[in-house]
Model the fold of this input.
Amino acid sequence: MNSDPYKILGVPKTATQDEIKKAYRKLVKDLHPDLHPDDAVKQERFKAVSVAYGLLGAPEKRRRFDAGEIDASGQERPERQYYHQYAGQDAGRRYDRGPEFGAGMDEEDLSDIFAQVFGGRTGGPGRGAFRQAGQARGEDLRYHLEIDFLDSARGTKRRVTMPDGNSIEIVIPPGLKDGQTLRLRGKGAPGYGQGDPGDALVTVSVRPHTIFTRSGDDIEMELPITFDEAVLGAKVDVPTVSGTSVSVKVPKGASSGKRLRLRGKGIKGAEGKAGDQIVRLKIVLPKHTDSDLEDLARRWREKAGCAPRAELRRMT
Done:
């Protein structure tokens, strides 16, 4: 399988961060192991795509990869790794890598150079010894998770398969926002040598709801009411994101667009204070009107003399 992260994601090296993110999300949806539990080829591609995005999705890592400072797996290039590890041990003998250090050299040439610098050509540690002595933190693994709107509002738990094939349980806290990233400490790739494991970075997308929308910590919704409820007033049940309904009083003579506020029925914020639920009234007539309703409307029109669009004519 190709190790070039740009080719794995199917984007050119000139791609923007948004283009890289878009390509990654498309591939995740096509290749996710939960959708193809018996397809080993797609599972391997999914892992490769996740590693590639872990590299190119972070601007600083992408810059370092493009500059040749880290390899396609996100690890320090060996010659840089050894310099950083041992440079502080030889006071007065600093060996700056420079932009061309190691270019065009094969494994044996570089082994000889490091043997000379760190202990002599014979009897000193070779390149393999430095690899064994080194350690580095494991790579962070990135994952994209889609959840329902109500799960984001109430909180939930989801078990998912990470890019390395391991299954972990993710706790979605109440009030999670669309696009927010959860960091799971120590759930990433294993470390090199005695290095600590990386983290799992789970970016969550929230699917839209058919009734509720979110504005900060407030919840907004449109509530259909009948003609008679608008004219005479009424008490109606209103659903909330908590799953329970609240009885709300519709005032007499309510118009479409009137807003009612349910205190504390929104999303609970980080400080523990919940937002409100904003209810916009919408008068809905029956699909089929009968003669009685039509006669009532005619009599009302003759007596009321109401001109709701007069203000619009004055303004135009």
Q: What stands out?
A: The chain has three domains: 5-133, 141-206, 213-315.
